[in-house]
Design goal:
Blueprint (H helix, E strand, L loop, with lengths): L7 H9 L5 H19 L2 E4 L1 H16 L10 E5 L26 H8 L3 E6 L11 E2 L3 E2 L15 H8 L5 E6 L5 H7 L2 E4 L26 E6 L2 H11 L27 E4 L10 H16 L3 E3 L8 H19 L5 H9 L8 H8 L4 H24 L2 E5 L18 E4 L2 E4 L5 H7 L5 E8 L5 E7 L6 H14 L7
Parallel strand pairs: 2-3, 2-6, 9-10, 9-11
Antiparallel strand pairs: 1-3, 4-5, 6-8, 7-8, 7-14, 11-15, 12-13, 14-15
Helix pairs in contact: 2-3, 5-6, 7-14, 9-11, 9-12, 9-13
């Protein structure tokens, strides 16, 4: 039997039953990587010698009677996580030789659960793109069409999963970086509630690995099934032992419902800032029909929904001002002159992004106050609904675009071009208030490209969208192997 596309849950069961060993699974995964990854380029830092050693140790541990949640399961890790002895570069050439001395807290947690780490997966420069290419490791291609991107910044992880390179992967998300690659590659991902999962050691190589609370950014699981997402999230979730973990222990509430017929779901497919392409709209409708057929209460409108245009503006303000603080622009004077020439009536998101590059702390506090008002509005909405279904981006995976100025790029939505970063508004809908969101496969475009949607849930009720994802998987199917 070929095991490369089996779920982590099934691999654990097979190893427990003696049907296969971790060493066999690891050798099979490495053989597949060596066969297929020359084109896909998902595994930018292979670690095969240590992987084979870890697999032998896992088999020995199981023979001694040990049984950890991920014992012996082949997995991958996004390049941006620190792994002792492997480079962490974030695709930035000045840091190509940066070797961290310690594992990221999530790498330590996952290793304690017993998996086999095959290597690290590719990212865009500085994790700052919706694609995955850089001058150190080159370009990762979409397994379904090598002329298209797998997404970013966890594009290498999504491409690896779609290609059968390990059963699970660790990713991160600030601008859809878990959800967009899952959508483009036909796999699953979960953006946890902000603050649910400790992030220490998922840090740029120029910075110390501090237990800091990040704004907007989260780390989270990627997989080929909804149940595997929960399996990995249970390993990852919890506060950093150096800070909140000194006093707090995690107790995630159960999913609100177990049966699909008990769910109350709001379905969205229109955004005031950018249209939804036909292929993605069809995916949203496919999920909505499955929900209704399963007896769920499905609504298309609600007066409780926060203003989507305002939400997009607040998100862009927080995202761009934070990004500029971490990666300063080269010429502030030129930027000030450009912003000064903008019309006061210009409310486009391009203009919002330019102005956010010059935000003062007071400007940021004003945006944060508006965020808190939106969070309160979401709390009211989730008193009436259990989840919101909506797009992740307006289109399936788009062709590679390596033009050097991302602000000048365009995204084609059914033949009409829009500013490249406007496609982030759907991802920002959950990111700005810090809500959990699960990316699930929702079929194929007419060209055969994967299409996904996201299930947004109430804050710290991550099991609710994850359970809904599992129920949808049972009704409409999930990941389909390439070959």
């Amino acid at each position: 039997m070929e095991w490369n596309f089996a779920s982590a849950e099934d691999l654990v069961a097979a190893m427990r039953a003696g049907e296969v060993t971790s060493a066999e699974l690891t050798d099979e995964a490495i053989a597949r990587i060596e066969r297929d990854d020359e084109v896909i380029n998902a595994i930018c830092v292979p670690d095969f010698d240590r992987a084979r050693s870890a697999a032998r140790h896992a088999d020995q541990a199981r023979a001694r009677g040990e049984d950890r949640p991920l014992l012996g399961v082949p997995v991958t890790v996004k390049e941006s996580y620190d792994i002792a002895g492997l480079p962490t570069t974030w695709g930035m050439p000045p840091h190509r030789n940066h070797l961290p001395a310690e594992d990221a807290v999530q790498v330590s947690r996952v290793k304690a659960a017993g998996p086999v780490v095959l290597g690290k997966t590719n990212v865009p420069l500085g994790l700052q793109d919706i694609q995955s290419f850089n001058d150190i490791y080159g370009t990762t291609t979409n397994p379904w069409d090598p002329e298209r991107t797998p997404g970013g910044s966890s594009g290498g992880s999504a491409a690896a999963l779609a290609s059968g390179f390990g059963a699970l992967s660790l990713g991160s998300d600030i601008a859809g970086s878990l959800r967009t690659p899952a959508h483009f590659c036909g796999v699953y991902a979960h953006k946890p509630t902000l603050g649910l999962v400790a992030n220490r050691g998922m840090v740029a190589p120029s910075e110390p690995a501090l237990p800091a609370e990040l704004d907007l950014a989260v780390v989270g699981p990627m997989a080929r099934t909804a149940r595997d997402l929960m399996l990995l999230l249970d390993v990852m979730a919890g506060p950093d032992p150096l800070t909140l973990g000194v006093a707090y222990r995690l107790a995630l509430p159960p999913a609100r419902h177990e049966r699909l017929s008990d769910f109350r779901v709001l379905v969205l497919d229109d955004h005031p800032c950018i249209p939804t392409g036909a292929a993605v709209r069809a995916g949203v409708n496919r999920v909505a029909d499955a929900l209704a057929d399963g007896g769920a209460r499905v609504e298309r409108h609600s007066p409780l929904l926060p203003d989507l245009a305002e939400a997009a503006t607040i998100y862009m303000q927080l995202l761009i001002s934070g990004a500029v603080a971490r990666f300063p622009v080269e010429s502030l004077e030129q930027l000030r002159n450009r912003v000064a020439g903008l019309s006061a009536d210009d409310r486009s998101l391009d203009t919002v992004r330019l102005r956010a590059m010059l935000f003062s702390h007071r400007d940021w506090l004003d945006a944060h106050h508006l965020r808190e008002l939106h969070r309160h509005a979401w709390r009211r909405l989730f008193a009436e609904f259990d989840a919101v279904v909506c797009p992740i981006t307006p289109t399936p995976a788009f062709p590679h675009d390596h033009s050097p100025n991302p602000m000048a790029r365009r995204i084609d939505v059914d033949g009409v071009e829009y500013p490249y970063f406007d496609q982030l508004v759907w991802a920002g809908l959950a990111t700005m208030p810090g809500l959990p969101a699960t990316a699930v496969p929702a079929g194929r475009s007419p060209e055969g490209l994967p299409v996904g949607v996201q299930l947004i849930g109430p804050m710290f009720e991550d099991r609710t969208p994850l359970r809904l994802a599992e129920l949808l998987e049972q009704r409409i199917g999930g990941f389909r192997p390439l070959r």
